[in-house]
Amino acid sequence: MALDHAKGRLAAMPDPYSPPPAPLPGGGHAIAVDVEEVSAKVRLEPGTGEATATAEVRFTVGSLGGRPALDLRQGLDGSGQGSSGLDSLRLDGRPLAPSAWAPADLGGGPGAQMRVLDVELPAGGRHRLEVGYPLAQPSAQGALPIDWRGRDGVRWDLWMSDLHPGRYLEMWVPAPLCHDRFALRVDVELVSTDRPHVVVTNGRAEPTGSGWAVHFPYRFTSLSPMLVVAPADEVEQRQTEITLAGRPAPLALRSTRHLDVDVDLEACEADVASWLVSLAQRYGPWVHGDAMTVFVWGPGRGMEYDGATTAAEGALEHEVFHSWFGRGVKPACAGDGWIDEAWTSWATSTRRSEEPRYGAEPLDLDGEPVVLRPPHPWARFTPGASYTAGARLFSGLAHLLGGAPQLRSAMAAWYRANAGGLVSTDGLESHLRAWSGVDIGPWWQRYVHGQG
Ligand SMILES: [Zn+2]
């Protein structure tokens, strides 16, 4: 459970993407803390259909003291409100009443509440929060329950989403907002079953006898980890190696499908391999280590992770593209998530697009203003208009910049300058202006910030 040493060097730097303190109704302020490490143990018992978890979060309070805001979408009623629903709670080894870490509205909009610790912490200290809780269907829009497979099997997928608040790691394990990088370890223990299972992940999984210890690197944020557990007799798995531009060592491409999903996994693998090769050539280096992990799911599923996806066959191209835009450069905060959905919709043949890809159509400044970048610093969703109005904006930008090839080159330069890092709406605007010499400000104001 070694902590990446980079965190120690970065811990002293203020985080430019951390949201400001939010006033609480009863007085005081909720603050975003700097999470260094999250370690969770998840216990799955197919025989009873019950699951429990314990988690430990190590964090530092920044230059402003206050009440730490993190999130966990377990133990809550359907509305995401109510009491804390936790079995146990400790801060720095001292027991607290579980009700001392309950959801609070910080102004981020419907569903965006965070759990705020009812303890005032001074600036600068390091702390350890320990939590125990029953694990069930997360209280967040669109979240799915653990899928028990008879009395001896389980299918569990983190199944994240950008579209609704609370749909990242915090569904299952305590986590900060998505600007914060931290080392993550998830131990999965399978109880009272001899049926072999597999774990499919973009982390490093070590067998433990009763399950796995899965380690995710420090560069990950709450939207990065992919983790699926499934009975081994319910999946097909393949592995091949491919060569990518700018990468001396081959990249492992690991593909899995549920046997009840009727697709040709070898054909999916070939498609993914060709997209990976062309994306590395066109946009720049692969930043996700030694493997790409693909889990082909039934209709309706499509989610990107760092160098990984769980997706229906028709969504694979879109989700693989996100390993460059969305997870190769990650949104600096949830409000910046529109960029990768708009750009991916413009640049791929996804079924979600209304227009063919690579559009370059004039976009007048008299259209209806659109908010793609939610302004509140504690907002936590990507507007659905990102896929449509956002893709249309990129078509207009392509026209302004002289054509689709020019826009692709501009975005490749932006990717290369930020590969592996966090990117913001303001940063992209500055880059496109500087790269092209075109004042895109009026389009940005109207079709990103919704100002008429
Ligand atoms: Zn997407």
Oligomerization status of the protein chains = single chain
How far do the termini sit from each other? 51 Å
Overall, the morphology is globular
Number of strands: 24
Mean pLDDT over the full residue set = 94
Name the ligand types. zinc ion
CATH topology category name of the largest domain: Immunoglobulin-like
What is the percent of helical residues?
10-25%
Low-confidence stretches: 1-12, 78-82
Biggest sheet overview: 8 strands, mixed
What is the class of the largest domain in the CATH system? Answer: Mainly Beta
* Tally of individual helices: 8
Describe the structure.
- There is one protein chain.
- The protein has 452 residues and is an alpha+beta fold.
- It folds into 2 domains: 5-225, tricorn interacting facor f3 domain (Immunoglobulin-like), CATH 2.60.40; 235-447, Neutral Protease, domain 2 (Orthogonal Bundle), CATH 1.10.390.
- 19% of the residues lie in helices and 28% in strands.
- The strands form 5 sheets. It has an 8-stranded mixed sheet with strand order 7-6-10-4-3-13-16-15, with no helix packed on it.
- A hairpin with a 4-residue loop joins strand 3 and strand 4 (50-60).
- Helix 5 packs across helix 6.
- It is globular.
- The model is unreliable at 1-12 and 78-82 (pLDDT under 50).
- The structure holds zinc ion (ZN).
- Zinc ion is lined by residues 318, 322, 341, 344.
